[in-house]
Amino acid sequence: MNTIDTGVRKDIIKPEVVPYFSSEQDTTTSPAIQDWGQGRRYFVEVYGCQMNVNDTEILMSVLDNSGYQRCTNIESADVIFLMTCAIRDKAEQKIWDRLVYLRSLKTKKQLKRAPMVGVLGCMAERLKSKLLETDKLVDVVCGPDAYRSLPRLLSLRETSVQGVANVMLSADETLQGIKEVVTLLGQNVNSYRDISQSDQFETLGIGSELSEGFKTIYKRKEGGRRFAELLDRVADIDPEMRIRFTSPHPKDFPDELIHIIRDRHNVCRSIHMPAQSGSSTTLQRMRRGYTREAYLALVDRIRDLVPDISISSDFITGFCGETDAEHRDTVTLMEKVGYDMAFMFAYSMREKTHAHRKYKDDVPNEVKIARLQEIIDTFHRIAKEKNQMLVGTRGLVLIEGLSRKGDCHSGRDDQNRKVFVDVVNNNDFGSGNVEKGKYVEVVYTSATSSSLRGTAIKSTTMVEYYSKSPQINVLQPSGLSNNLNEQLTR
Questions:
Q1: Does the keyword Ion transport apply (predicted)?
Q2: Given Cys at both, which of 173, 177, 241, 398 links 9, Cβ 3.0 to 4.6 Å?
Q3: Which of 29-38, 109-118, 345-354 has the highest mean pLDDT?
Q4: Is the pLDDT of residue 8 over 50?
């Protein structure tokens, strides 16, 4: 299972308190809440979007606080959870097939105890009855707003011959342990277009232009609210809450969107811009809709408007027909841009894609691996040089907790860089500890290619910190940024 650092405070996301289960009860007759799991092991499989990874962190917190233990071997699990996504029919069918397989585990004679199977997430909400009734494949069904009830559901299933479920939507489930950001998620998230009517917000119709030099194979639709306006509206909600978005496509970065990132102090100053390749001819075969020159021009435009922006990207080496010269174009693109983070992979052919229909996967595997290693080395060399240039400068870090070693605090700055923070025992920090979810101003003291280290100067707020930066417009939640106000007054 892949996980991400979500900022979830696992120590305070507790199971729900049930009046007839008290921690002071005699556990010989009624188990205490913290003993429900009694050391039983659970295994989680995650399907679909990044939000499901976040939900898994919440699930793990609830179960861990209820006496369960996570395991990495499915056959040793007492409970198996599928965190589902059912946006596409194919994804839903994959989960049904998986449930049939899991039923076979129940019939294995060598298992002393058949594992329970739970289905969580959006498929659980939509198909509760079918999941519980079809061949009795599932023991527990639980929707996203009801994860705190899972220990109780599992206990009820122990004494029931039927599966149990809770897919009720909650009006007040806020999970206060979550701090950090609102992350706008989606495939090509900045291609957002909302044509619904609203009595509260007038559609301004800004930000619909493609980035200069970019095109799309799909017919361009006009009208509706675009991503720049959505991002601005979300940022308007709370001046102390960071806003991020992923994963965008570089074709949809009009100036209006870049202005929002520049003008809004709580929109994080980091952009993910997947390049995939630095070769125009390879990009053409990939049907990416832009050239190397157009991509570089967009990077220059963004950095002109937001000089302290951090840029991350995706790269694929060894795409069909890739030559040594085309690979060299990727290396030089990485050198010219100087990425702060990169996700790098060797190409593998996928069925039912344009490449599968039109091309051959003809780059030898040993060549792919060698090229991948070269771009990895290139990234780390440049990222380390960039980060070392930050030593002696200051940044705003949101504390996420202690580092894995426990020798300092850790968090992320507004450029999404990992920062390890040394906290000095002084009047501002008392005993030398900083509460999770608090902002601190730090001075960077050392750097690697993937992280920074710094010393905390003082506790602060986002508004206070950026009020000292004249190039950033610090706005209270009361309307549009300067750029959108200009649009309204024209």
A1: no
A2: 177
A3: 345-354
A4: no
